[in-house]
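[step 3/7] inverse_fold.run input=structure_tokens len=794
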């Protein structure tokens, strides 16, 4: 672990589809602990309420002010800072309307030179920790995602009425690792494929890799912090004094594990007093002021701080003045101004000045009150002096007023002519350019629309602007080209169909929050679903019964020393029934036991497993050193194919029951960068073709060393293709686009036959199409539903 001043960090803020420099959600602070060591705190906050964006920078600044590692342990100081801000926000929300509530999610990283970094999260947040690069450049990663869910206690926002839960995690001891802090709306982007890609990158390359996919989000922020040495000069921490002792517990221990009965009241009370030998902030309040704020009859031992120390947990006592008093005092009205006003009022309590003695009557009444001896018949009010006026001056004044009004009218007409004249005299070319610009904005807005109906309405409005521009100038080249683009996108949207009635098949939420279903394979009357987040493979029967057939970390083999890795790819192999000598089999081979249908599972080590109804069997990969990397698996009746992304090849292994033959190149050296999915299909002529999908949206087709043409006719390109499958009867290619939440049916020439998209499938992760039964099995993040093929494809 290096000094905090050497740490490399970078940030990225996406707002309305483009990167901006301002990022008020990000903050850094450096302070000293009890031993004088330098501690760095990196903060990333996000708004969790409609009215919270206005105060997000003050929330980050307030956490930095409240973090005091010089008075307690690192985790204890951070927990107390978050609890204090939580109570201040709750007090603000109780005094304001729901539209003005301020609630936040926060993730922070605490770094000190003598121990691994500590990741903390409260409210909606996402954190990804990566260690040192290992084999094939991969880093071990740990994802801590807490999107807003009722069943996730950590995702309850800071400032909400729910109980606050702060979660801490220790980062790996790494020299070139990093910690990635993101807002919670990016959790869907960190699937297994994305995490594997990120694990290959250095700290200065992570946000560049996420930039293209984060552009599709309306508002997202990311912060990456290095866990190893950077390029800044080393700043050594000063040597601690000889008499200094560290009174806090070990920072690696969670303070929730402390037993309250083990704390001495005197020690607990003294732990909250400032250390006279440590550096103090100039704006820190005097300890005597805290004692003067006690209620009458209350001793320092009864103060909330000492009571909390004896109880072994943090409780923040906060009683702010109402917002109306803040406005009178001249403070800006925000969730954290009440704490500053309370501090100022405590340091300088208002003292009312004594009133001076009365030396004269308050008011001289004089003759205002009549006496009983007065003659009340006299008039109280004197009659006014009425004098006649000459009508001549009145007529002159009216004429002058008329002239003034006429002059004002002339001036207003001149100003209106200056302001409105250019627009009234605007040329035809300017009007055409304005309409074309509005149409382009409408085309861009359709790509950001959440639903197909909203995108269609935006495109229809844009097409109307183009038609009006062509009415003015029928030969405008820009308008003609833009009309073709809009009509092509509209034609593509018209191919979008609804999935119809969706029937739930299996609910997998009971398997925990770390669940993200992915690729789907079907065979033997069962569906096999890959869990990208939990490292599992599920088997789902026709009646919805779910079984875990493969689990990361489980013991395999008779000795129990073999541990399964994380599954990354699946392939179902159907073995044709034996045909005797007519099919080229010898009598000796026909006498051997027949091969079984099997599911091939590839894990991250990499190792290959063969699953049948009798269990899981490890199958060694021959000549593994010849492969640059093993990234995906595919299968035909008699062969297994492995995708080598680093080597730019696809390798074929002949299958002889439970053994593999030597590797042979099925696809020669080519560019397979970012390739993640592999599917093999046997053509009617007996040749084997391969479909390769990449995380950058490309779909490619190979036959041997030759790449066949496959240009998708899409105006909205693929963002994240996954879960490829081939139609057994139609020969169509079915692709799941996770970025757009849609299922596409594509012909061999690349023409789009249909698209299935709806709000129910917004989080689509995988799919399998059974053309024989006319059913489609959709894999959502935590459930599996079944629908029908669109009309015309059954």
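[step 3/7] decode complete -> sequence:
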């Amino acid at each position: 672990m290096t000094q905090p001043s050497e740490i490399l960090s970078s940030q990225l803020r996406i707002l309305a589809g483009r990167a901006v420099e301002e990022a008020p959600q990000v903050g850094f602070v450096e302070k000293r602990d009890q031993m004088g060591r330098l501690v760095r705190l990196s903060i990333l906050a996000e708004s969790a309420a409609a009215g919270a964006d206005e105060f997000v920078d003050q929330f980050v600044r307030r956490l930095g002010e409240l973090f005091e590692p010089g008075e307690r342990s690192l985790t204890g100081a951070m927990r107390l800072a978050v609890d204090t801000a939580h109570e201040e926000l709750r007090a603000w929300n109780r005094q304001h309307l729901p539209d003005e509530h301020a609630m936040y999610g926060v993730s922070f990283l605490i770094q000190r030179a003598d121990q691994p970094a500590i990741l903390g999260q409260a409210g909606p947040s996402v954190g990804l920790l990566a260690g040192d690069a290992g084999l094939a450049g991969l880093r071990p990663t740990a994802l801590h995602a807490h999107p807003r869910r009722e069943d996730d206690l950590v995702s309850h926002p800071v400032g909400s009425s729910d109980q606050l839960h702060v979660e801490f995690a220790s980062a790996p001891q790494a020299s070139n690792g990093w910690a990635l802090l993101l807002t919670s709306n990016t959790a869907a982007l960190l699937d297994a494929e994305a995490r594997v890609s990120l694990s290959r990158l250095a700290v200065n390359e992570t946000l560049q890799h996420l930039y293209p996919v984060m552009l599709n989000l309306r508002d997202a922020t990311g912060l990456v912090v290095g866990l190893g040495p950077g390029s800044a000069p080393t700043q050594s921490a000063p040597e601690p004094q000889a008499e200094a002792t560290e009174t806090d517990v070990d920072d690696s221990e969670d303070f929730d594990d402390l037993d309250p009965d083990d704390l001495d009241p005197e020690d607990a009370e003294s732990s909250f007093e400032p250390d006279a030998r440590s550096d103090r902030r100039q704006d820190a309040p005097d300890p005597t002021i805290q004692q003067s704020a006690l209620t009458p009859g209350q001793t320092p031992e009864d103060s909330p701080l000492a009571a909390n120390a004896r109880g072994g947990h943090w409780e923040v006592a906060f009683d702010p003045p109402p917002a109306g008093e803040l406005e009178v005092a001249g403070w800006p009205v925000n969730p954290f101004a009440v704490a500053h006003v309370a501090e100022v009022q405590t340091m300088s309590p208002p003292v009312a000045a004594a009133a001076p003695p009365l030396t004269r009557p308050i008011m001289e009444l004089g003759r205002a009150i009549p006496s009983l001896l007065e003659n009340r018949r006299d008039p109280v009010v004197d009659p006014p002096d009425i004098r006649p006026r000459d009508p001549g001056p009145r007529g002159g004044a009216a004429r002058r007023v008329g002239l003034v009004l006429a002059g004002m009218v002339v001036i207003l007409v001149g100003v209106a002519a200056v302001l409105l004249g250019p627009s009234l005299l605007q040329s035809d070319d300017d009007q055409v350019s304005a309409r074309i610009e509005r149409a382009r904005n409408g085309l861009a807005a359709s790509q950001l629309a959440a639903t197909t109906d909203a995108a269609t309405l935006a495109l229809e409005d844009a097409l109307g602007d183009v038609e009006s521009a062509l009415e003015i100038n029928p030969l405008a080249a820009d308008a003609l080209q833009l009309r073709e683009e809009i009509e092509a996108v509209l034609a593509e949207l018209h191919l979008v169909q609804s999935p119809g009635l969706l029937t739930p098949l299996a609910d997998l939420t009971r398997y925990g929050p770390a669940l993200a279903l992915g690729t789907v394979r079907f065979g033997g009357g069962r569906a096999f679903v890959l869990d990208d987040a939990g490292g599992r493979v599920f088997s789902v029967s026709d009646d919805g019964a779910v079984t875990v057939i493969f689990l990361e970390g489980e013991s395999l083999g008779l000795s129990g020393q073999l541990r399964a890795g994380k599954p990354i790819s699946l392939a179902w192999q159907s073995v044709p029934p034996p045909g005797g000598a007519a099919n080229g089999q010898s009598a000796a081979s026909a006498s051997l036991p027949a091969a079984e249908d099997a599911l091939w599972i590839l894990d991250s080590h990499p190792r290959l497993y063969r699953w049948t109804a009798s269990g899981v069997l490890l199958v060694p990969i021959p000549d593994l050193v010849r492969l640059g990397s093993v990234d995906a698996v595919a299968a035909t009746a008699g062969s297994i194919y492995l995708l080598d992304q680093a080597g730019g090849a696809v390798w074929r292994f002949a299958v002889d029951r439970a053994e593999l033959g030597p590797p042979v190149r099925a696809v020669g050296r080519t560019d397979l960068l970012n390739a993640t999915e592999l599917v093999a299909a046997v053509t009617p002529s007996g040749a084997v073709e391969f479909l390769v999908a990449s995380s950058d949206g490309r779909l490619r087709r190979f036959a041997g060393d030759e790449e066949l043409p496959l240009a998708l006719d899409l105006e909205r390109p693929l963002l994240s293709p996954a879960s490829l499958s081939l139609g057994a009867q139609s020969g169509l290619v079915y692709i799941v686009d996770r970025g757009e939440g849609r299922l596409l049916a594509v012909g061999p020439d690349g023409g789009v036959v249909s698209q299935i998209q709806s709000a129910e499938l917004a989080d689509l992760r995988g799919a399998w199409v059974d053309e024989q039964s006319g059913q489609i099995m959709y894999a959502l993040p935590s459930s599996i539903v079944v629908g029908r093929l669109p009309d015309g494809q059954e």
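[step 4/7] annotate
Residues 231-321, 323-331, 362-374, 580-593 have pLDDT under 50 and may be disordered.
The CA atoms of residues 742 and 757 lie 5 Å apart.
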